[in-house]
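Example S7 (C-alpha cells).
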C-alpha cells in the first residue's frame, strides 16, 4: 500500500474552506457549501469531508474533540528559517490561532505551530534548505 493523502472530517465546511484557501493558500475551487473537498497539494491528496456526511455514509456516530486537539498535525515546509517567521506572522494576522511561536529546536529545525478553526494542529517548519535536499 502507498500513502495517497490525508483528510480532515470537518464540522463547518465553509469556515474550513475559507481558512485553508484564504489563510494557508490551498487552491480550493469548491463552493463553501460543498460536502467534500478533494484536492492534490504538492503531490499529496488533501480531503475535507463533512462529519455528518461521513456519519451517514458509515451509519455510525463518532466522538469529536472541541478546541485544540493533539491527535495529529499537518506539516508544511518552507525553505528558510526567515520564512518560518514570516509565514507564522502572516497566517496569525489572517486569523490562525497561534500555538507555538517560531523556535529553533536542538535537532536543527526552526518550527512553529498554529491551529485551524476546528483545532487541528499545523506545523510550519524548515531545516534552512530547500525541500527534499
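Recovered sequence:
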Amino acid at each position: 500500500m502507498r500513502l495517497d493523502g490525508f483528510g480532515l472530517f470537518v464540522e463547518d465546511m465553509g469556515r474550513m474552506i475559507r481558512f485553508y484557501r484564504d489563510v494557508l493558500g490551498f487552491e480550493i475551487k469548491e463552493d463553501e457549501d460543498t460536502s467534500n473537498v478533494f484536492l492534490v497539494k504538492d503531490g499529496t491528496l488533501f480531503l475535507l469531508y463533512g462529519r455528518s456526511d461521513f456519519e451517514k455514509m458509515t451509519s455510525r456516530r463518532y466522538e469529536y474533540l472541541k478546541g485544540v486537539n493533539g491527535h495529529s498535525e499537518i506539516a508544511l515546509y518552507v525553505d528558510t528559517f526567515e520564512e518560518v517567521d514570516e509565514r507564522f506572522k502572516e497566517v496569525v494576522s489572517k486569523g490562525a490561532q497561534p500555538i507555538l511561536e517560531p523556535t529553533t529546536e536542538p535537532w536543527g529545525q526552526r518550527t512553529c505551530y498554529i491551529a485551524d478553526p476546528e483545532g487541528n494542529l499545523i506545523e510550519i517548519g524548515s531545516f534552512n534548505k530547500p525541500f527534499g535536499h
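Notes on this example. The longest strand covers residues 97-104.
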